[in-house]
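Lab notebook, design round three. We kept the backbone fixed and only want residue identities now. Task for the bench partner: fill in a sequence for the structure below.
Input structure tokens:
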């Protein structure tokens, strides 16, 4: 017979699960158990070894093979379907019989329940610290902690793959290319490949991949990062990294250059200002962005026209203090035509 005490304990656990669900909704902290099958597939886990019976920490159990939808991250029951099994185990524990060992898979520093989800739930509800478990360990090069969710695990996998393929951490040991969103490392690899292509086109030769990576980091990535630091943009993005802003610039540049038909002629500082207004979590900055955006897009073609003019004439190099600044579209084209006509007369 199930006792009233076990019913009270289960009801309390369900209430705590409900409260945690709302708290984690507002804080954004991970509250779902991880699926072992999904993690195994993403990390391509294959090599495993039986480690025998061990005492493991309950708060390092972050997922399950089949019951990950029935409990939250703290292993509190999320539905009433688990009640009968949960209460029976709770009564056995209350009678002083303890918990039979569970079975787990270990990946990095965390565990996934193979058998014994209800025992883990009751033990955590009773504030136990550890539990006995038969452990099968899967080897992985990706460090996983108890605070990770699937996105952060994927990020760690992407980061490890990125450095394996590029060797950037060896070429530039002081680098700090860290993203907070999946998919950004692939974007950077594509940008490095494009930079390599441009350099090879310029020199008419093939350059080593390591040289292209060093050139990209020194001449493309770092100047943008230094600009981000000068403008103190990260103050508007406290939960993001410098690399995140670099990736946003890449994505936003393609969109903005297509909009104004100015491939390769949108200045980094103008683009950074636009991204800051658009992406900022500061409501005032976003409001000002709405006010200025149309004006900026009207002015941008003129700035692009000036950039093209200066690139074609090399005027900045020939006369650094020329001070030529037009205020209406088309003026730079007129000046350029006048220069061409003057050159024809001289010839």
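Proposed sequence:
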């Amino acid at each position: 017979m199930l006792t009233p005490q076990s019913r009270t304990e289960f009801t309390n656990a369900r209430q705590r699960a409900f409260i945690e669900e709302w708290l984690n909704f507002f804080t954004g902290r991970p509250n779902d158990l991880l699926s072992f099958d999904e993690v195994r597939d993403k990390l391509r886990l294959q090599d495993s070894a039986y480690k025998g019976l061990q005492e493991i920490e309950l708060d390092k159990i972050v997922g399950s093979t089949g019951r990950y939808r029935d409990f939250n991250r703290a292993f509190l029951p999320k539905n009433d379907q688990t009640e009968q099994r949960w209460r029976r185990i709770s009564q056995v524990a209350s009678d002083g019989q303890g918990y039979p060992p569970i079975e787990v898979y270990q990946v990095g520093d965390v565990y996934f329940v193979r058998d014994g989800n209800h025992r883990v739930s009751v033990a955590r509800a009773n504030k136990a610290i550890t539990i006995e478990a038969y452990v099968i360990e899967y080897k992985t090069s990706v460090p996983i902690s108890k605070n990770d969710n699937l996105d952060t695990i994927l990020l760690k996998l992407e980061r490890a793959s990125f450095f394996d393929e590029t060797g950037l951490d060896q070429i530039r040991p002081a680098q700090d290319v860290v993203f907070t969103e999946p998919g950004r490392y692939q974007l950077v690899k594509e940008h490095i490949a494009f930079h390599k292509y441009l350099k090879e086109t310029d020199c008419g030769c093939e350059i080593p991949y390591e040289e292209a990576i060093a050139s990209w980091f020194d001449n493309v990535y770092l100047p943008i990062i230094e600009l981000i630091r000068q403008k103190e943009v990260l103050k508007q993005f406290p939960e993001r990294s410098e690399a995140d802003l670099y990736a946003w610039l890449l994505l936003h540049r393609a969109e903005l250059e297509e909009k104004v038909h100015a491939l390769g002629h949108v200045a980094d500082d103008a683009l950074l200002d636009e991204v800051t207004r658009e992406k900022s979590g500061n409501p005032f900055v976003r409001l000002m962005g709405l006010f200025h955006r149309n004006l900026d897009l009207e002015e941008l073609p003129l700035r692009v026209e000036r950039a093209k003019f200066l690139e074609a004439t090399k005027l900045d190099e020939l006369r650094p203090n020329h001070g030529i600044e037009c205020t209406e579209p088309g003026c730079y084209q007129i000046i350029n035509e006048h220069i061409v006509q003057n050159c024809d007369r001289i010839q």
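Keep this in mind before ordering anything: Residues 59 and 311 are 60 Å apart (CA to CA).
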